[in-house]
């Protein structure tokens, strides 16, 4: 089920619930990109990349920001958020982006899907009403809070009581939590294990503080960085380590998403490792509407 948006009603509702003046942000409906708006001199739009089960069925989508300006052209999402930080408008910018994502998703896709939303790390530790303002928009569109997954990058997972408090606040309201880009910045999978322990024996978790911090957050999902899968392509030993890593998360009650999957071989490696869900260009490109990957130069879709 999708919702048709009345722009005048939408502006009134957002003004009341989010204290946003949508006339100031030039909110408009477009045919190609749905709702778009402007902020900090940037044109902001949404695209969505599917997250699929092992049989290819879509269970959710990650909302991704597309920002551009006449002066700079396309701007990477993290650069757009950096601009918001520099302008001391991070809270306003984040609320606006998340709202546009939600409304575009509600208007274009089945709301029974999970919606994965990224949150800037600084916002997690600088506000106290985590997700509660956003709840008003969810209620207005009858979107269960449990359908929204808050993504936190692994690099933000540090020994910080404020981060743990933020995660617990989100969870207490009903949001699900995902740790994104797990493994990014770690040069090899074997760092997860003692070098002399053998390929099939995990290291003491106490000796891996960065992994322990992620497990301590008890996320609903962990999204493996593409580098993790690429390293697992290097041979049987690395693939066994990946399998054990996935098992560690499963033992903690966390589902594992392999992202940045670009080939059938990578998809097979991820499946063999026991991951729960898959994301990447092999299964669908980021877009405003449904997009089909081009597999013309591959041996065919992954079998269910």
From TrEMBL:
Q: Which PROSITE patterns does the record match to this protein?
A: EAL (PS50883)
Give the EAL domain ranges.
24-300
Taxonomic superkingdom: Bacteria
Q: Which SMART domains match?
A: EAL
Q: Which CDD domains is this protein grouped with?
A: EAL
Which GO molecular function terms does the record list?
cyclic-guanylate-specific phosphodiesterase activity
Entry's SUPFAM superfamilies?
EAL domain-like (SSF141868)
**PANTHER family per the record?**
CYCLIC DI-GMP PHOSPHODIESTERASE PDEF, SIGNALING PROTEIN
Q: What is this protein called?
A: EAL domain-containing protein
Protein source organism? Ferrigenium kumadai
> What are the leading ranks of the lineage?
Bacteria, Pseudomonadati, Pseudomonadota, Betaproteobacteria, Nitrosomonadales
